[in-house]
Design brief:
The chain has about 110 residues and is an alpha/beta fold. The chain is about 40% helix and about 30% strand. It has four helices and seven strands. A hairpin with a 2-residue loop joins strand 1 and strand 2. About 30% of the residues are buried.
Length: about 110
C-alpha cells in the first residue's frame, strides 16, 4: 500500500491487492496515518488496484471516513472494481461515501 500526492488540491492513497480480515488493521493504520498527516483539504482513496474487499476492509474504510470527517477533511473513493462496488451498494454505503469513476472525476468537483 502506498500514498502518492498527484494533484496540488488533494492527496491520493492507493491500496493494492486484497483488503480483507487478514490485513484490515494494517490498511486502517496506514490510511489513518494518511488522513491525519494530509495537508490538503481532501483525501482520495484510489481503489483501482484493489482486487477484492471483504466486510473487514469495508469497516476500515468507514473508520477512516469518520476520522476524516472529524478532522474536517473531505474523503472520496474512486475507481472501484465491479465486485468491490457491489459491497457498497448492498450495504447502501454508496449513499454515504463520495464515490467517483476516477481521479479526474474527483478533480472536477474541486476545481
Amino acid at each position: 500500500m502506498s500514498s502518492t500526492k498527484i494533484r496540488p488540491q488533494f492527496t491520493t492513497f492507493r491500496p493494492q491487492g486484497f483488503l480483507s480480515a487478514a490485513n484490515a488493521s494494517e490498511f486502517l493504520e496506514r490510511l489513518a496515518v494518511e488522513v491525519k498527516s494530509t495537508v490538503d483539504s481532501a483525501l482520495l482513496v484510489d481503489m483501482e488496484s484493489v482486487e477484492f474487499m471483504d466486510s473487514a476492509g469495508l469497516m476500515a474504510l468507514i473508520k477512516a471516513f469518520r476520522l476524516a470527517e472529524s478532522l474536517g477533511l473531505r474523503f472520496g473513493i474512486c475507481s472501484l472494481a465491479p465486485s468491490v462496488r457491489i459491497m457498497f451498494e448492498l450495504t447502501q454505503l454508496d449513499k454515504a461515501f463520495e464515490i467517483f469513476a476516477d481521479q479526474d472525476d474527483f478533480q472536477s468537483t474541486i476545481d
